[in-house]
Amino acid sequence: MNRYSIFTLARNALGGHRGWQAAWRSPEPKRRYDVVIVGGGGHGLATAYYLAREHGITNVAVLEKGWIGGGNTGRNTTIVRSNYLWDEATHLYEKSLKLWEGLSQELNYNVMFSQRGVLNLGHTLQDMRDIERRVNANRLNGVDGEVLTTVQVKAMVPIINDSAHARYPILGASLQRRGGTARHDAVAWGFARGADSRGVDIIQNCEVTGIRRDGGRVTGVDTSRGFIEADRVGVVAAGHCGVLASMAGIRLPIESHPLQALVSEPIKPVLDTVVMSNAVHGYISQADKGDLVIGAGIDAYVGYGQRGSFSTIEGTLAAIVELFPTFSRVRMNRQWAGIVDVSPDACPIIGLTPVKGLYFNCGWGTGGFKATPGSGWVFAHTIARGVPHELNASFSLERFATGRLIDEHGAAAVAH
Amino acid sequence: MLMIACPWCGPREQTEFAYGGEAHIARPADPDAVDDAQWADYLFMRTNPKGCHREQWNHAFGCRRWFNVERDTLSYRITSVYKPGERPAEPAA
After folding, report:
1. Is there a contact between B75 and A254 if contact means CB atoms under 8 Å apart?
2. Domain spanning B1-6+15-25+49-93: CATH 3.30.2270.10
3. pTM of model > 0.80
4. B41 phi and psi, to 5 degrees?
5. Taking the domains of chain B in order of start, what are their residue ranges?
6. Roughly what angle, to the nearest 10 degrees, separates helices A184-197 and A372-385?
């Protein structure tokens, strides 16, 4: 692997930039692997990376039906935070945030992680009570959090509409200063490069069409490039997890919905933090190259079409313009949707299945990007050891039968 | 944006309707007779198909009545609309 540094940059500059190597190989799939990961998004690539890095399992293939990072990894609004309410979720997301804090160094790849802070606005007295409860819960769990007044919000974000006469006036906010944004493509590319350099085969344009089993054990996967044998298969396929589960005869408490986002034309720097609002529903940040990045809620219906309804965008933009009247004349450049796997309690399902050797990591819904490194970390442990890590033990499929749900709809901050 | 033909009011824009999830999920007749796994299946598990899906819609800003829609979840094309208690006009593809 070509290690990136100021010296390699200088050396390649002198060589006219003709000496750079591809960041990862594109090998033909082997007939057999120890572990096959289905899904080459951030979570799948992180899983493969930590399987090699932490557990020494390198005979691993990541199968991706499109191109890596072309699904939800490249379609989210890049927000990273860990201010969830319940202990189980907080510890999982906080593990992930801690990994984010060292990720560029760890991967020798600039993921442009920017801890610019995340504001969650409160518009009603009940919003503020919920915010205080969540911030206190975070602090008890060792996660940073502050409650801001309207004046403090206005000082941080001068362009925000702090009028007391607004339809939904801003009464305050929670602030997690360690939260922020990252470059989503770079996360996928960095993990891909790191996994590849440790021997993992990344196989793109390879769609899984069947999961073969023998006596309740997984034996491999049928793909568009032939059968691949494996003792252990980890499925991290977000919106398509239900399609893959049905191949193995498993029913999931998941429904797939389009989640829309859009970016504006680039404008001068006006917003140096992330602003989210549950009540009016909008979340917004400004990318380093100047575009406003705006996220909507999910479309209510089940959909795999990677597009949603215009009325959903209209509702979100109405909220954004209410919060930031100055954005009313900004033109939008692009708009798209990703297919998110929504679970009943807005928490993921990470663990074993009734089929031996088959593991699922799904149900991240609208909030998976922030969890990319942590998800890979715990899923790699689960696959390597055959038992969940203590951080994901509570996120089993069985919780829907026992009733131990982890209700994070409030902290998920996206309308479901 | 979908155009949905309410079986009582005719074709209207999607914004008049509320989505009601997967159709034809029957509550177990005797809840005491099923185990936790069966109850969880009724309560939480969904078919979530990529393709033909039968689902409930409510004409919330219209006649406020419930009905069923058969829709392709990839193309979003509606293939059938039918009233509660009825079966879809043509068999699912």
Report:
1. no
2. yes
3. yes
4. -65, -45
5. 1-6+15-25+49-93
6. 30
